[in-house]
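So, can you check?
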Amino acid sequence: MQAKYFKYQLHFKRPSGTSRGVLREKETWFLLLEKEGRLGVGECALFRGLSADDVSDYEVQLQNLVDQINLPKAILIEKFKDYSSIVFGLEQAFQSLESKNPFLLFPSDFTSGVDSIPINGLVWMGTKEYMLQQINEKILAGFSVIKLKIGAIDFDEELSLLKHIRKEFSAKDIEIRVDANGAFNFDDAMEKLKRLSDFEIHSIEQPIRQGQVEKMAKLCRNSPIPVALDEELIGYHYGIDKNKFLQNIQPQYIILKPALHGGFIGTETWMNAAKQNNIGWWITSALESNVGLNAIAQYTYQLGTTMPQGLGTGSLFANNFESPLSVANGALYFDPYKKFNFRYR
């Protein structure tokens, strides 16, 4: 078997805001395997500034992987377990190599076009007017779950956006999720959570910055809104007792991103820990190209969950790869008659 990798720079169609800053481009890497005329493709979806494996020698590690690619898969995963996005790409590439179609990793009713995956409509940060425009567009597009990134503009203006939704739609009609990306200060977080609860919010992701375990646990115990851990899980793929970790904080939900949380194998260990502690979960993409999004979507569908997922980011990029994926009426679809246009060298 032969292997190679290459870097690919994704360009946002429009700068997209989060509480960590405005995103204009997204770096990602691809791992290609070739064996007996077959191709295996995996996306090592590094997220600079967020991934635990955002290190200076990242490309060196990819070269080390290529040099050792003929070792058994299990040994490679163990060797590179500290590099979550590399494990994610490695898992995809091996699964892809074993498939008749390199982009058909987990055949199902989803990949045959019979079924779809319900997803949330994501509203990026920006001016109040821009966020309002996005909200109206998502509702008109048929989304019944709207997720707003909050924490960057004036909090009262963010509340007015929620009021706009609730003025027209009850919680039965439109589910609202919010994601603070750790933007709140602990000292005033509870007050903000109480004010948010007036709008029947489904959940809030990562209200305060990660790494404040005791403070996060206190919020989870007392918040009037269910709390979902997101960034809190990054970097804890191996070497910790995940049951104990979740028992200490006791969130209502955890958000799982395979590229950031140890690949599919790491995601499964978090799912098992959540199940043992009666904690809900859903899967979210982490600004992968359509290659990584395709893998995550196929993987997610075969888990059998009916909760709306966070898998609709493929349309953000101007230079994404054409794929069988599309979004309509608040769901992600796969067209089995449409081919991937994956350009590689």
